[in-house]
Amino acid sequence: MDEPMDGAVRQGEVLTLVQRSGRRRHYGLRRGDQDLGRLRFAPGRRSVAQADTDLTGPLVLTAGRGGVEVHHRDGGAVATVEGSRRGTMVIRTAQGPAYRWRRSGRWQRRWTIGVGEADLLGFTAAQGFLTSWVQITIQQDLPEQAAVLLSVIGGFLVLRELQAEVDGAAAIGGIVAAGAG
Description:
single chain; twelve-stranded antiparallel β-barrel; 47% strand
């Protein structure tokens, strides 16, 4: 594969969000050996997270019934994620086109961000016993800042969903255990 262009992320490159500790939901965003930033969920919450990268600056991501809002810590809006038809969501950034977020493939833990008919990023996630991770595959060359911002937003959406599955499984386990006792 060719060397990355300055300011761009090339098709086929992989970014990862890896949980740093089993005790906290703090994730490191990496591009190979390069540290791009962090995504940290508030303790006990899956609806609020803080992200910090050199390319985006400090961000706050907040989920509510109407979708997700992404803004700088000083309050400036960066992006919104809104529900749409058939499980697809729309990501609107301050600059740039409207992107679509959707599940892809037959597997439960695969998502894509695209624009028009083109897929730009592919997300694959896994939940281990104590930690989780997200692999982000670049489907088309993108400016590095856009790739990092979309990776943070997509990672937030994926990790919220994974945590909801874990919480649901724990609740069901508790109900079964209470019924058996």
